[in-house]
Design goal:
CATH superfamily: NAD(P)-binding Rossmann-like Domain
Largest sheet: 7 strands, parallel
Distance between the termini: 40 Å
Enzyme class: oxidoreductase
Number of domains: 1
Keywords: Oxidoreductase
Bound molecules: nicotinamide-adenine-dinucleotide
EC number: 1.1.1.175
Order of helices and strands: EHEHEHEHEHEEHHEHE
Pfam families: adh_short_C2 (PF13561)
Radius of gyration: 17 Å
Helix content: 40-55%
Number of strands: 9
CATH architecture: 3-Layer(aba) Sandwich
Shape: globular
Protein name: D-xylose 1-dehydrogenase
């Protein structure tokens, strides 16, 4: 029960990894604010989590800045405090550099990166001292493939944001880390055109489960990770270690 009495905001809580994070943090005692733009997916996560009195559910688009402030206000009104934010919401686009428009870049940067920056601003203004930030990045922050340029750039930008937040949060005991999943068995992976076309071929041993990521997210948020901040925590089954 590492999060008993604590309030954690999870964005992208309707997705595979977001739902696993919600279940894990809930099982360890947290009050949760679950955010996703897909109300149906949010309802599925809500149903997977047992204690409705410890839940606040908000259908919102994380790329709208004012909504981050509204989420914090609602969280504090309901639970009296915020102790952590897990930025999980993300989206991909599959296009070559010659085809990507400004709108494409803006949309992917907004969902994967700006949204995390908006929540970070709110956290620095309203989160408890000693709180934690976890950004779900990707191994695409380190190595990438064709046709996912904006996604890879946004995920790399998140690792930089974690370092800045770690530095600026240090005096208040605020820790900030990135988790870099490899391939994880969720709709995002299953629907990938690069997987379907064979451009990206996966060894089954390189595919993890959402719970594998949730375990690392929970560790990064917990007091056990009190000396871990500004870090890139990779969970990829060893995929990046191979020559
Ligand atoms: P998913 O598609 O199951 O979940 C993503 C969730 O984000 C969805 O519920 C979606 O509705 C939500 N979302 C998207 N845009 C939003 C917006 N503008 N506002 C609010 N919610 C929005 O995918 P997942 O695999 O669970 O991915 C979760 C995170 O993990 C993403 O950031 C993804 O980039 C990252 N990741 C996934 C994998 C993988 O293989 N699945 C690998 C590395 C990193």
């Amino acid at each position: 029960m590492r999060f008993s009495g604590k309030t954690i905001i999870v964005t992208g809580a309707g997705g595979g990894i977001g739902q696993a994070c919600a279940r894990r943090l809930h099982d360890e005692g947290a009050n949760l604010v679950l955010i996703d733009r897909d109300a149906g997916a949010l309802a599925a996560t809500q149903a997977a989590v047992a204690a409705p009195e410890r839940l606040l559910v908000r259908a919102q688009d994380v790329s709208v800045e004012a909504e981050a402030a509204a989420a914090f206000e609602a969280a504090i009104q309901r639970f009296g405090r915020v102790d952590g934010v897990v930025s999980v919401a993300g989206a991909m686009i599959y296009k070559g550099l010659e085809a990507l428009t400004g709108q494409d870049w803006e949309r992917i940067m907004a969902v994967n990166f700006y949204a995390a920056a908006y929540f970070t601003r709110q956290a620095f203004n309203h989160m408890q001292d000693g709180g934690g930030l976890v950004y779900v990045s990707s191994i695409h922050a380190r190595q990438t493939s064709a046709l996912v340029g904006p996604y890879a750039a946004a995920k790399a930008a998140l690792t930089s944001l974690a370092r800045t937040a770690a530095i600026e949060g240090r005096a208040r005991g605020i820790r900030a880390n990135c988790v870099l999943p490899g391939a994880v068995d969720t709709p995002m992976l299953r629907d990938s055109p690069n997987i379907k076309s064979g451009l990206e071929v996966l060894d089954p041993q390189d595919v993890g489960q959402p719970e594998d990521i949730a375990a690392l997210v929970a560790f990064a948020l917990s007091d056990e990770a009190r000396f871990v901040t500004g870090a890139e925590l990779i969970a990829d089954g060893g995929r990046l270690a191979k020559l």
